[in-house]
User: Fold these one by one.
Assistant:
Number 1:
Amino acid sequence: MGVNIDISVEGDFWGDVSDWEELVSQAVNATCRHLELQSHQSELSILLTHDTVIRHLNEQWRDKDKPTNVLSFPAVPGGEKCILPPLLGDIVLAFETIEREAQISGKQLAHHVSHLIIHGFLHLLGYDHDSDTDAQEMETTEGVILAQLGIDDPYHN
């Protein structure tokens, strides 16, 4: 695929960036393959951070004063779903929230992170879950992509 992924790690929670590069690459590439996306060259930025940072971003951009697991900031809102733009945007993940969710649901941390990367990436491509129909389409797409990675569908367990 033609997606260059820049991963930044903020804080000590996530460890070294090299621990996450392969997982992120697999999730993004599986999504591109499943959606049969065409790309000459695209860039994606991923920030692995913590609850304090994502809470601030969530309040600033969504008026929600609480941490969340993942936020997506598309460079080109409402892009075409079949062609990747040169600049995709940013995905931000918060370690404490993700770790807590994984523990509560009995999921492996790496599987939950993969799911959230796919979820965030789909948002960058114009997918959303604002309506029941849109949510069903997005959840089904996530489940199929996760299955290709050998990860159980988080919506149908």
Note: The CA atoms of residues 21 and 133 lie 33 Å apart.
Number 2:
Amino acid sequence: MDALWLRLRRHWLVLSLPTLQLVLFGLLLQAESRRDTLATLALLLASGLWGWLRSLRRLRAVADTPTARIASAAQGYAELRGRGEPFGGQPLLSPLNQLPVLWYRLVTERRDSEGRWRHERSEESDASFLLVDASGECTVDPEGAEMLVQRREVSVSGELRLTQWSLLRHDPIYVLGDFHTQGSAEAGFDEAARMRELLEDWKADRQSLLARFDLDRDGQIDLREWELARAQARRQARRERDAALALPPQHQVRAPADGRHYLISDLDPGRIVRRYRLWAGFHLTVFLGAAAALAWYGQAHGLPR
């Protein structure tokens, strides 16, 4: 049993759930004890159920969220479509071929003595890029996103195999995530609160407060002088508010804080839905198969129900 868990831990970090389920199936065929067989079947059952429910949630998120335009999208969970552009006009350089990209994932594998490719390391860019549609542009932060990207390049050199997935400039990009706007659309500026903050800061530095507002130089701030300070704080707060409202809107998409699915892809939404539907069917098959195998195994070996 300990050997089983060590092998699973080694695979879990580098393999997707479907691949892990295939590994479990291989372990099931090699299981030599009743305990290992039951443990593997239980893991297949649990992974099938979890994968099925996860695929259904993701399918519903893509299918049920309407596509919005960047300039008029509501704040919160949103679906956007457009083309990719480098942030600040400066694209990343691919570590595979030094060509400009918006995002990349690079997987390095090494050939072992038996001729099989073994995962060695993975690296993925985390730099933001732009999504542009006819109404505007927004910054896309890829951190925490599931990346469904179809462009793949493979390079083999000696005992190493490098596989890179990438997004390029002008690629069609689909994003489902948390949409947030700052700037002229930001309604969170509290002028009264900012005025109070300024007055508290000025009071904390008494010497500067006296130098600015102690008109009769008696070392005290009387009522008339305090009203002068309040008026000055009010004017400064209004200037800061006007400066904030004058800024152009800055849109951003990021991972939702509530844990909802964050997806970036160069696939059409219809293809994404079909992919999740296929994965849901695959995981349901794994779940039902594992449940049937557990029932058969229990009956064949006289296990208590």
Note: Residues 1-15 have pLDDT under 50 and may be disordered.
Number 3:
Amino acid sequence: MAELDNALHAKRRERFMAAMAGGGALFLAAPPQVRTRDTEHRYRPDSDFYYLTGFREPAAALLLVPEHAEHRVVAFVQPKDPHMETWHGRRLGVEAAPAVLGVDAAYPIEDLEAVLPRYLSGVDRLYFQLGVWRDHDDLVVRLLPRLGSRHVLPPEAVLSPGSILHEMRLRKDPVEIDLMRRAAAVTAAGYGEALAAIRPGGWEYQVQAALEHAYRRLGGGDSAYNAIVAAGENAIILHYHENDCALRDGDLLLIDSGAEFGHYACDVSRTYPISGRFTAAQRAVYDLVLRAQEEAIARVRVGEHVKGYHEHAVRVLTAGMVELGWLHGDVDHLIETEAYKRFYMHGTGHFLGLDTHDVGRYKAGDAWRPIEPGMVFTVEPGLYVAPGASGVDPAFWGIGVRIEDDVLVGADGQPENLTAAIPKAPDAIEALLAEAFLHHS
């Protein structure tokens, strides 16, 4: 697993503190999450906290006080404890934290509430993200009145650090871009193995297992999100996660999955014919979605705004649905009345980074923000036809197609498809499936 270097995290903290122009900022590590009873989900650090520290342990905090005379950057971590480390894993510990994390001072996490007042005395505002974790909110709510009762001036305002930090995270630096390329490469390998697992009579979960085996084998860690492996009519359920149905001859299989590498996400969708060849109706829908996607990707560039590529995809899809006979009337009117949403009900993409649905504002005031170098977007148009859809040829019923790639806006302002290595041309898909079927026989 790739590690981000200490100097990079220090640079990020300095950029954040410079933008703060005073005040203090508190970031708390995400708490472990219970899966069932006394069993926890595999731990994943909070993205904001990780972006500024590179630290993966729970029960930790980062305090930034840029105007403090001695300790501008303070960490709170779990102390060394041989008994607890035997059960739950090694800890960095308080003594090693300053050198390893590159901070000015470190304290046991248990001392957080006792230590904070000495650093926040006279700080006029506190940057802290409310509304994410209840226990974290309660800590800050308890702290502020106590500051006042100790004859210490409490912060006059609690501000969201996202107004600064999420704008930083939105524009990826070279280290982040490298990690996202590696996530894309691992994802491409996973899709190669998944495609080889597709066969009539197989199961959705077998395809998912092939994907995730490759992710783990190649060092990608966890999936960036719960995989969607949706055969036949399951593909019209946008967030289908059961992945427990059989693969039937003649149906399509929609896969939406991506590896995480160094905690950076990949997010890809492909749609495959389970029999190895598209039917005429499936190919017509697939070709339309692919054309919308390729034209949308071309518009992920400087000079466009972040909503522009969605608007173009909607226009291509709506015109195509008129040609297919699903919609009737003037394309502009169908778009204005959102008639297309009967078959295309989601957006064409989102920011991507440490989070699958990454942070960053899509608007500047009332206007869609312009696209800038360093931004990474998903581009994912689709079409979904419910069984029995009125006014639609039954040959199209139950078809769900989505095609998704991850697109970086390069330094030259042009789009770069990070996931282009995952085949999506229909003829190429059919050829790959034919080769896979030969190995099965």
Note: The longest helix spans residues 174-196.
Number 4:
Amino acid sequence: MITPVILRAMPQKVALDLMMTGRRVFCEEAERIGFVRQVLPLSEFDKGVDEFAQQLAEKSPAVMRLGRDAFYTTLNMDSDTALSHLQAMLSINTQAEDALEGIQAFLQKRPPEWKGK
């Protein structure tokens, strides 16, 4: 049941090794093989989570949603099909209110005020 998740997170040979052996993976190896994005000492974990959450919260919710959807939609597409899909998504993205707000905020040298639209 976890095969699709594992195959999207790490190289196929590593995934097959873990699936066939059932061996445990500890944090340093999990980071090295791409199973986790970052490993932090326990004493820095809450701070690291807060910083990551803040980075995400500073982005447009509408653009983040479009980006996430584009990522998962194109994950298993061939390159030509994925590029066609992404070109269409870029057109939708540039029409979002948040896209205009981002440009205006950049030009006015101020933080953007996202509306999620």
Note: The radius of gyration is 19 Å.
